[in-house]
């Protein structure tokens, strides 16, 4: 199956979006509608979920980036940007590095709900926990209802995806590469339990370009709630200004 939907060649800007742990391309369905036609939102569909549910989920950043970088760059104009939330922020950063190595740097990198990846994670390792403890940890982040996790069939479907995605993040080690020549917009919820807000300015250590930190009300999934409109306005402002 395809990693990305067919892009809109008429849009002024192309924004590839990488999902949070357990998420799929459908997370960005409303963004595609709300930002068109100026920004073409192109969400990644990772293996193991939604239209690719029959494929095994990958468990490392390297495997995911290696598999998606060619499809992402194929037919992509020089001006493109990357957005990722939580696990997606880590993937977006590494995709940006892979694109830079190929001489195709994105015009801007948007990272949301994730600590600077060259620093130790502020959260403990979770992917190896027993089911009950793992589910409790998932619920603590918000964005998942108690009722959903009481559906045994849904739990059986979701847990392997979440475990694989947490393994992606928790097995990652920063390669201590040179800073990227890519401006970064850092976004986060002020009450995100997975992020130390005080550390977010240190994303600036990973770029030779400018870094902007923007905080919003809410927790880990602030961008999918009432803060969605301000987040989209931030993306439009920063992306159009950069391009």
Helix and strand pattern: EHEHEHEHHHEEH
Spatial arrangement of strands, main beta sheet: 2-1-3-4-5-6
Helix content: 25-40%
Biggest sheet overview: 6 strands, parallel
Shape: globular
Give the amount of beta strand, in percent.
5-15%
Coarse structural class: alpha/beta
Low-confidence segments, ≥5 residues, pLDDT <50?
none
Number of helices: 7
Distance from N terminus to C terminus (CA atoms, Å) equals: 31 Å
Radius of gyration over alpha carbons?
17 Å
Mean pLDDT across residues: 90
Number of strands: 6
Write the layout of secondary structure elements.
Elements: E1 13-18, H1 29-35, E2 39-43, H2 61-73, E3 80-85, H3 87-101, E4 108-112, H4 131-140, H5 146-149, H6 152-170, E5 184-189, E6 211-216, H7 228-242
Parallel strand pairs: 1-2, 1-3, 3-4, 4-5, 5-6
Give a brief rundown of this model:
With 243 residues, this protein is an alpha/beta fold. It has helices at 29-35, 61-73, 87-101, 131-140, 146-149, 152-170, 228-242; strands at 13-18, 39-43, 80-85, 108-112, 184-189, 211-216.
